[in-house]
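Customer escalation, tier 2.

The customer says the design service returned an amino acid string that "doesn't look like it belongs to this structure." They asked us to rerun it and document both sides in this ticket. The original structure tokens are below, unchanged.
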């Protein structure tokens, strides 16, 4: 019989799309209230050229930022984190339209896993309508392996370097 080891703690991360800087700041405040302070975040950039999926609901010229929370978490938190971010999105909506899109994930030594509510063949059902999607696999030497379904904006060197740097600085200690 195998011994089940206690899993290492990981860091909660978030990909954030926002209609405005004001909505971004409000989302940051609301998520910090739920998940604790941010360790690091990227400066907001115009989200263009990746997909028009969000434009109908949120409008053009969206801002994209990536956040990492300071407090380590257990891996099982991903489902509850996605449910909590969905509640924040609803509270910040104007009418039936979101002003912010919050996509939590888990950064570990070996991978970056994002949460989603959309099923697909490469996504693993976790519970409560939430799926996990492996987006990065980290090599021992520090390299990042992307997968065919890794989102285009997560393929950018700036984003990979951001998450790789956090992994190296915080998780490899």
């Amino acid at each position: 019989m195998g011994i089940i080891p206690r899993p290492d703690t990981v860091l909660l991360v978030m990909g954030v799309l926002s209609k405005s800087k004001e909505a971004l700041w409000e989302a940051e405040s609301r998520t910090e209230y739920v998940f604790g302070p941010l360790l690091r975040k990227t400066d907001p950039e115009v989200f263009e050229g990746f997909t028009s999926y969000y434009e109908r609901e949120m409008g053009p010229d969206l801002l994209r930022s990536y956040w990492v929370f300071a407090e380590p978490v257990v891996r099982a938190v991903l489902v509850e984190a996605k449910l909590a971010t969905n509640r924040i999105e609803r509270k910040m909506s104007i009418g039936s339209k979101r002003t912010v899109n919050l996509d939590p994930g888990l950064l570990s030594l070996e991978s970056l896993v994002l949460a989603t509510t959309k099923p697909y063949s490469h996504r693993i059902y976790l519970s409560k309508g939430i799926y996990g999607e492996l987006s990065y696999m980290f090599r021992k030497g520090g390299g990042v392996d992307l997968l065919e379904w890794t989102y285009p904006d997560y393929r950018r060197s700036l984003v990979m370097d951001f998450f790789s740097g956090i992994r190296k600085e915080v998780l490899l200690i």
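Tier 2 assessment: The sequence is consistent with the input. Helices lie at 21-35, 55-58, 77-92, 157-171. The radius of gyration is 16 Å. Sent an explanation to the customer and offered a walkthrough call.
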